[in-house]
Write a structure and sequence with these properties.
alpha/beta, seven-stranded parallel sheet, six-stranded parallel sheet, 15 helices
């Protein structure tokens, strides 16, 4: 056992928080103490973290939300959060600080730089986010999920893959049941709180499928709260079995049972799909910074494990064609599942944990 402390700085979305959770689980298993520094928004994603992780909520802010007065206040809120984090770090000094990006990570990363604590950032996407790009030249190691990752000049990255949670690792490589005459499970996920475009396009695409295929579908779909009623009505009117929720806390289990996954190309979703090994249709988020979701999708698409449909080309017709291309071809579906599994990195969590321990030892 050890009394070494790891401070994880993350927040904003599940894309930052899920790999942070995975690292927390691994470091606790290695005998470390773990704290998470996040802001009130990030704290909403901490339900899955082990109870042993101490959650420290620190003020932060982003320029992407709020009016003029709110944006004027952003630097002051971040500075206040950094002061709080620096004070806390003086009372309980971590051996290593790991940042996963997002504005909530800024206070702890600034404090680690001020206190000269060994520090590392992990980038989930194929292009560095704004916060990670800011800190990349100011940390000791940069771990990357997608390889190669677009890095600032002079910064070297280390390919680790994207850490996946224990619930995903438990299902890594789960046997795939190709589509046949049985009921077919389709999982539709659009980010941590669904995606409006999927609520608009997926139902008419499903309804346009031939009846023999459509009637065998068992859908699990993430939708925004404001879209639940209309999407429910669409499926109920066609007699389609659908489980609609704003958030699934059992995505690994649902993914393991699925014959097909329809998803945004967020880093955590792509990592989960590859680790478990499932055919997928990916719709990269067009407004993502630096088009990083398209970069995220390239590995699965290039391996023949996924079909990518750019948002500009996404219609009920193009999606229905892609769905039939998988579910009407069992051999292709099985090959896609195997291709996804072949590029998965279920050991990414352990790779990142090893980097943390190396950094603590000065390596």
């Amino acid at each position: 056992m050890t009394d070494r402390l790891l401070l994880i700085a993350a927040g904003g979305t599940g894309g930052h928080m899920f790999p942070a959770q995975a690292l927390a689980e691994a470091m606790l298993a290695r005998g470390w103490r773990v704290k998470l520094s996040t802001d009130p928004r990030g704290a909403r994603y901490t339900q899955g973290f082990p109870a042993a992780v101490k959650i420290e909520v620190t003020d932060s802010a982003t320029f992407a939300r709020g009016g003029i007065l709110g944006r004027i206040a952003v630097p002051f809120r971040i500075a206040g959060g950094a002061l709080t984090a620096t004070f806390r770090m003086g009372r309980d000094r971590p051996a290593v600080v790991v940042g996963f990006g997002g504005y909530p990570a800024i206070p702890a990363m600034v404090a680690a730089w001020v206190r000269r604590v060994p520090r590392l950032i992990h980038e989930q996407n194929g292009v560095l986010g704004r916060v990670n790009r800011l800190f990349a030249p100011r940390v000791h190691k940069v771990a990357c999920s997608i390889w190669p990752t677009d890095l600032p000049a002079g910064v070297e990255g280390i390919a680790t893959g994207n850490p996946v949670r224990g619930a995903v690792r438990d299902r890594a490589g789960a046997p795939y049941v190709p589509p046949g005459d049985q009921p077919l499970s389709v999982l539709v996920i659009g980010g941590s709180q669904g995606a409006r475009i999927l609520s608009d396009v997926v139902p008419p695409a499903i309804l346009s499928l031939p009846a023999p295929l459509r009637n065998r579908l068992r859908l699990s779909q993430q939708v925004r709260e404001e879209d639940v009623a209309r999407v429910t009505a669409a499926y109920d009117g066609a007699g389609i079995s659908a489980d609609l929720r704003t958030f699934f806390d059992d995505i690994p289990a649902r993914m393991a049972e699925a014959q097909l996954v329809i998803s945004r190309a967020g880093a955590s979703s792509v990592a989960d799909i590859a680790a478990i090994g499932r055919p997928s249709i990916l719709i990269p988020y067009a407004a993502a910074a630096s088009d990083h979701q398209t970069a995220n999708a390239r590995g699965l698409v290039g391996a023949g494990a996924a079909v990518a449909i750019p948002e500009r080309d996404l219609t009920p017709e193009t999606l229905a064609t892609a769905i039939r291309g998988v579910l009407d071809d069992p051999a292709r579906a099985a090959a896609m599942a195997e291709a996804a599994r072949s590029i998965g990195k279920p050991d990414a969590t352990e790779r990142l944990a090893a980097l943390v321990e190396d950094l603590a030892l000065g390596r």
